[in-house]
Amino acid sequence: MTRGPETETKAAGGRLEDSTAALLRPSLEAMGYELVRVSLGGQSRRTLQVMVERQDRATMTVEHCAEVSHAVSAILDVEDPISGAYDLEVSSPGLDRPLTRPEHLVRFKGFEARLELVEPVDGQRRFKGRIADVETVDGAPVVVLVTEHGPVRLAFASVRKAKLVMNEALLAAARGWAEAGRSP
Q1: Which CATH topology does 2-9+98-179 take?
Q2: Long-range interactions of 138-147: CB distance < 8 A, separation 24+
Q3: What is the average per-residue pLDDT within 93-117?
Q4: Superfamily of domain 15-91
Q5: Is the pLDDT assigned to residue 5 strictly greater than 80?
């Protein structure tokens, strides 16, 4: 059974984050980076966080983040999508990374993740379990998560937030990735 609303767009993020991501994505992809997430947070001092990783999955360095920061700053200075002052923060996803696309869930199949839904399903909004699969149902991605209560199927469009859980399995895999000179 697929859980979640029948929508075609990912529910996470607001319009400003989505429009800013759409503005930045083509340039970042042309530079060899994948845009993982854009988020705007903070009350008195706002911060625009741009999270990227290399398309070739090689390790991100401070120099890569600086390169992205300069490019993003130039685009935002010209397009000016955000009113008022804010700080720009460019980072890589890290180990307990957000999973913002179905492809991320496929890539981390077998690892443990936490998912939070937009609306509760059967009274539950938060799920934790091993990513077993990502299926396609009626043309839409569905995450199969094996929880302590058994497998659940959650429509990806109903996911507000998803991220990997830091545990021994992830740390062991990370050591292997580091030895190979690549990121997860």
Answers
A1: SH3 type barrels. (2.30.30)
A2: 140/6, 140/8, 141/102, 141/105, 142/2, 143/102, 143/105, 143/115, 145/113, 145/115
A3: 96
A4: RimP-like superfamily, N-terminal (3.30.300.70)
A5: no
